[in-house]
Design a protein that fits this description.
The chain is of the alpha+beta class. It is about 35% helix and about 20% strand. Strand 6 and strand 7 form a beta hairpin. Helix 3 runs antiparallel to helix 4 and helix 5 runs antiparallel to helix 7.
């Protein structure tokens, strides 16, 4: 296989290597995926941009070092959200959107103003695509299998990709091992199969949520109101921490279902 190595300086180096199997884990614009897996070049993405700023002291200008803020506002993002995530000495302030032409930098400026981080020292600016949904196929039917952003495994609605890149990496490694042991190319399919069995349903639900709740300020307001509900918070937190849907509390699910319907049809006030 011929591949290009990004060194961060000048043109990529072109190398050749021989391997029985290749795991393409080279990010959302994966060259391995585009070179080997049909359809990978058409992966839909959200554009994300963030600025890494020096964190103010805890309590300074309203800043809370142990609190993550998520902004659902059309002017910050017309179809995704903006965030303020403190990471100790530094804080990530950013936004994502699928809308072409929307100024991510301008929205981040607004967000920094709203969060009281307008004058915080900017250490870094970074922009990159975030995949919107898993690819339908993660292998080339010969000896290549994808993992992480290259396979499109970022949770819709939240944009959480780190956990799923790690989880997908494990499934890809297991599939590669099975392929190298048995020589059966069908083993490569085990990566997507295993991942989707474990996380497919969560991705599906989050995808519906994103499409429904993130599309207008009116719906975003209802969504935020709904998220204030302690049952929703508890189940969401448990699902987030354990990476699976909570099955043991049918009463709470039922309550949420009816509240959800109430919000959906505007019976429950958004104010
Ligand atoms: C602005 C922004 C904020 C985000 N915030 C969060 C968050 O708060 N929480 C969360 O869970 N997720 C977040 N994500 C998503 C998360 O960063 C990704 O889903 C995750 O990093 C995917 O991991 P990965 O290993 O698949 O890809 P990457 O992290 O992109 O790693 C791919 C690696 O491959 C290397 N590479 C690519 N091509 C070549 C080449 N030709 N030669 C050599 N090396 C190459 C790259 O340099 C890189 O090191 C965010 C994404 C963005 C853009």
């Amino acid at each position: 296989m011929r591949y290009e190595v990004e060194t961060g300086v000048g043109k990529p180096l072109v190398r050749e290597a021989r391997a029985r199997c290749v795991i393409g884990a080279d990010g959302a614009r994966s060259r391995v995926a585009r070179q080997c897996v049909p359809g990978a070049d058409k992966m839909p993405c959200v554009s994300a941009y963030h600025e890494i700023v020096r964190s103010p002291k805890d309590g300074e200008n309203g800043f809370q070092a142990d609190r993550c803020d998520v902004y659902y506002q059309g002017k910050i993002s017309p179809d995704f959200y903006g965030w303020v995530f403190p990471h100790g000495d530094t804080t990530s302030v950013g936004v994502g959107t699928e809308v072409a032409g929307f100024s991510l930098r301008e929205a981040t400026r607004e967000l920094r103003k709203a969060a009281g981080l307008e004058h915080a020292e900017t250490l870094r600016r970074e922009g990159a695509p975030i995949p919107l949904r898993p690819l339908d196929c993660w292998d080339d039917g010969r000896n290549v299998v994808l993992a992480g952003d290259a396979a499109g495994v970022v949770a819709p609605a939240s944009g959480e990709g780190i956990y799923y890149a790690l989880a997908g990496g494990r499934y890809a490694a297991e599939a590669a091992e099975a392929f190298c042991t048995t020589g059966k190319v069908s083993s490569l399919k085990l990566a997507r199969k295993g991942f989707m069995k474990a996380h497919g349903r969560v991705f599906w639900i989050l995808g519906i949520m994103q499409r429904f709740w993130y599309c207008s300020d009116k719906r975003r307001e209802r969504f935020v109101k709904m998220c204030a509900d302690p049952d929703v918070q508890r189940l969401t937190w448990e699902a987030y921490m354990n990476k699976r849907l909570v099955k043991s509390q049918p009463g709470a699910h039922l309550k949420i279902f009816f509240k959800d319907l109430g919000h959906l049809f505007g019976i429950v006030s958004a104010k």
